[in-house]
Amino acid sequence: MMKRECKSVDAFAFYLLKQRGNDFLVPDDFDVILRDVMSGHQELDFLVGNDSFQDRYAETVIARIFYDHNRSWTGRMSFAEFKRGKIVTIIRRAELGIDCGHQTRRKKRSCFSYKDFYVIYSKFWELDDDHDLEISETDLCYYAQGSLTERIVKRVIEGCGKPTDLASNKERSEPHMSYRDFVWFILSEVNKNTPTAIEYWFRCLDTDGDGLLSLYELEHFYEEQMSRMEYARVKRIPYMDSICQMFDLINPTNKSFVTLSDLKRMREPAVFFDMFFNLARYIEHENRPKKLRMRRKMGGRHNPRLGSNPWDEYVDIEYDRLIPPLGDEDDEDTDGDIVFGAHQGDVAATTPSTDQPTETLINEGESSTVTSY
């Protein structure tokens, strides 16, 4: 029966993973194979015996698999999505010890990358003050030192980009974000040019849910950016001037609104999104041509240590900031990665009080605090 139904390795793996009676996979279906990878991978030995840390690593990998390949956004992965995403190949590479270590320098790092996990969980830990694995709207406002506007944060926390997977709780008076929700959020925020990120932010900006971004909706978000420009003492760009500039880049089919298809045709949709809710990054986009010209004039080249896309570059930079090179200060006794305190079963940690969000890291019992930027 099984042999007759499974005509390929993909079909056989899908059959083994799915629950009986289902013709799709849900996130929990991947848990068994993730545990097997963690138990047999040499570079992930430090996770053994730390159930809470294992849970977060597994959640991160599974969330990224669905983020990249569940294009229907249903939380149910079809066989077509499973096969198209080459999930079997991804898992095989991880089982063989490929793509989990932080030294990978492929064009796109695997979702099994421990380095990526470490950065994502560090950022979540930084925001989750009470360490209950939930983030409130107030918590999320501190992300990247408050770089996002309050209006977009409200839309994110309300589940407009991705519906939360948190169970309804009558004791919870305000919407919250789970760790899995946060993985989707940070992947979308750092690299807004991926298909999933474009859809994520389009849903957040589409306040009336009609599938169109009207000039009125866009102005609603831009108003707060204008206030931020004034506060940051940068030249204020009138709304209509910005819209004209964006429409020149987008070339929408209709000048009265922007569609999802319009944005997917853009070479770099991040410029559009950042203009409406991340002023720091928008200014960075504007200054980038000047920096490139300066680099060429000085004979500079792209740093080969950095990744080849916005997400990989972000992870490389953040990982280096979180973990100083071996040999620095008191790191002579360090023979592995720094592990930070986390929820319940993780190594205990105390986050000191400070005016800025901090990450408390634990290196074999010795703590150090790194201020986020």
UniProtKB/TrEMBL annotation:
The record's section on SUPFAM superfamilies has: EF-hand
- Composition bias (Polar residues) maps to 350-373
Q: Where is this region: Disordered?
A: 344-373
List the GO terms this entry assigns under cellular component, sorted alphabetically.
Answer: protein phosphatase type 2A complex
Would you say which domain of life the source belongs to?
Answer: Eukaryota
- InterPro entries from the UniProt entry: EF-hand-dom_pair, EF-hand_13, EF_Hand_1_Ca_BS, EF_hand_dom
What keywords tag this UniProt record? Calcium, Metal-binding
Residue span(s) of domain EF-hand = 193-228
One of the entry's Gene Ontology molecular-function terms is:
protein phosphatase regulator activity
**Keyword Nucleotide-binding in annotation:** no
Keyword Calcium in the entry? The reply is: yes
Report what the protein is called.
Answer: EF-hand
Q: Which organism is it from?
A: Basidiobolus meristosporus CBS 931.73
